[in-house]
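Before anything else, study the sequence and fold tokens given here and see whether the fold suits the sequence. Record follows:
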Amino acid sequence: MKKCMLILLVCLAVVAPLAAAGNEGDISVGVLLGQPLGLTGKYVINDDLSVAALVGVAGGALAIHADGHYGFDAFTIEDIDLYPYVGAGVQLGLATGNFSMGLNVPVGISYYIADPAIEVYLELVPGLNLVNPFFGFNFGGGIGARYHLDF
């Protein structure tokens, strides 16, 4: 029970300040192919800030990530606008008889397709396990795509 409360508090500490920064934004949903493999969502707060979450599987365990992202100005390569970002967040792993929790520092680059409204991104995620039988560094990432929902 104490672990569940700690998880909840850490997730709220990461997501709440970012979500409170604005009340309008774009929501997108999609998949990440990599480590972990899963479903992802993103809420854009403003031009610079967004919140991303992932629920998936990694090494046979349930993986849950929640990150805040800071986006930088786009740069162009042969008429293609690419948007780099960096973030910070938490990662949780749940498996039979095992629990892990740690910190993430996602670094990525996004490309936006206008029609249909899709974001394609490549992300590398170094992390540090804090609560785990294996305290130490880990590494994840992959390629993903998110579809922007219209409300």
Q: What stands out?
A: The two ends are 37 Å apart (CA to CA). The longest helix spans residues 2-20. The chain has one domain: 2-149.
